[in-house]
Amino acid sequence: MVKERKERRTSLPDLEGSDVPGGVVMRIAPGPSGPLHLGHSRVAVLNDEYVKMSGGRLLNRFEDTNPEKVDPEAYRMIAEDLDWLGVEVHQTVYQSDRFQRYYDVVRALTEMGQAYVCLCDSDEWRGMKVACQACGCRGLAPEESLERLDRLLSSHYSAGEAAAVVKTAIDHPNPALRDFIALRQVDRPHPRVGDRYNVYPMMNLSVAVDDHDLGVTHVLRGKDHLNNTHRQAYIYGHLSWTKPVFIHYGLVSIPDTVLKTSVIGQGIKDGEYRGWDDVRVGTLRALARRGIRPEAIRRYWLDVGVKQVDVQVSWDGLFAMNRDIVDPESKRYFFVPDPVPVEVEFDGSTESSCPLHPDRPELGVRSHGFEGDFMVHICAEDHEELQRKGMLRLKGLCNIESGETCRHAGDDKSVSRQGVRIVQWAPEGSLPAEVLMPDGSVTPGLVEPMDASPGEVVQFERFGFVRIESVGDRVRAVFAHR
RNA sequence: GCUCCCGUAGUGUAGUGGCCAAUCAUGAGGGCCUCUCGAGCCUUCGACCCGGGUUCAAAUCCCGGCGGGAGCACCA
Q1: A389 Cβ contacts chain B strand, under 7 Å
Q2: Residue A8 CB in 7 A reach of strand B
Q3: Is strand B within 7 Å of residue A176 (CB)?
């Protein structure tokens, strides 16, 4: 048997049963409680990638079945985030449009004796489940359960009093899989559909019904849904529906990052964060602001793959991929943090010359003219080096010697071989600049006059890659990575 | 407590019985190159959770430990 050469993987392993006519139908199912964060992007990218591999269709289904957790703004923000990520959505579905269908399914299940309406106290009901015992409601005749269901759906009960339950196996060895709630009453208008309904489906019901109705062939999601898959399988079984292929990947942990939508939302309310794109949080809009490209995120998730092992996101890894993308197209500029002025004695005239990109001479150079004594700013740390060593090279300009005052010391580049440090500098006419760092702090400094547009990523030499937010009297930028 | 899932370098990843004294990326150390602490080139460090078993041969199969994670919601 011939073995393939070892190669770096650039695509995902084949999906089981993916050779369906017309391609696979897959879905992402965000809960509209806020914008997408880095963790969410994995399921979006992976599903999108498999759909593209097979020429199939991707659904975006908003799981807005809990009125208490819906942020009406989130529908729009999520759509924007998916678009930014390059995820191609072929159809958008709102579960809040489909409540009647869920009721009908529960009715059908009740008729066949596979669902019931439970009037027990919820704590008691849960207690009986752990003891593998059925409550009195479970054994009721379908006709009686049906009457209860009608009463539930016509607001006969108060919230919390009744719930429609799907039967599984009350003595299932896995306590997580013994009967589950399908419908419950919530007396709160829905942000999107108002007070048309007050009986809301639980996700295991709505997800199973939708995946079936919408022809989903493959369900790819995190393994936190493993038990949900088993629960949903009962609905498929009761109704003799064909199951999709289920794939579960491992959990993602993202170090040093605030991801929880509820925490960020609260932080915004409290004024701790400036918005969903605050650089300190892990939302996609924050990463976008920090100059992270969607292609880097995609490459990252493709590299991680779909294994069931839990993974820890490596920011270094993600940044390395981003650097690959951004480096060839980033113009170089001098930014001087913590600037110190240096007067230089000079009795000639000259012009500095630094390429906009060291590997792309065709982009041209940045240059500044000098005549007679001049002044530049260098950063404090380099200034110390100047005192210590007695000499420094201003990149692209000249060498300077320290003394009572500094002196122009020729333009011999080879001094760097003797250990003279080559540093960036800011000429007169430079602009004040602020670089927003990932921890929320601001690094002030001076940046040489620059020609960059908002949104563009440039490299501040010896400082790092930054995304320009605005240019004008002052430059505002956001730090990306080194 | 019960059920399920997982266990290759710091972080990811390749590997499905012999070509593995284990791949690639990232990271860390060193060197070259470059008028950046970026890029590029070279180099070093670093892993198959443990113990049994099957086999001529195990990272790969089996069993048992141990470790990690998830679920047991009228959240998704």
Answers
A1: no
A2: yes
A3: yes
Nucleotides on chain B that have an atom closer than 7 A to a protein CB are: 1-8, 10-14, 19, 23-27, 34-40, 68-76
Range of the domain at A431: 330-482
Q: What is the pLDDT of residue A353?
A: 96
Q: What CATH number is attached to the domain comprising A136?
A: 3.90.800.10
Which of A163, A181, A201 finishes a domain? A201
pLDDT at res. A358:
95
The overall average pLDDT reported for chain A is 94
- Reference A150, options A117, A194, A122, A189; nearest CA is A117
Judge whether A238 lies within some domain.
Answer: no
Q: Give yes or no for CB of A125 within 7 Å of strand B.
A: yes
ipTM: 0.94
User: Do residues A29 and A63 touch, judged by C-beta distance below 8 A?
Assistant: yes
Q: Which of A219, A303, A210 lies closest to A16 in space, CA to CA?
A: A219
Q: Which of residues 457-476 of A touch strand B (CB under 7 A)?
A: 459, 461-462
Q: Which two tokens stand for residue A364?
A: 């041209």
A341 & A481 share domain: yes
Of A151, A153, A132, A457, which Cα lies nearest the Cα of A324? Answer: A457
Structural domains in chain A (count): 2
Least confident of A29-38, A58-67, A275-284, A402-411: A402-411
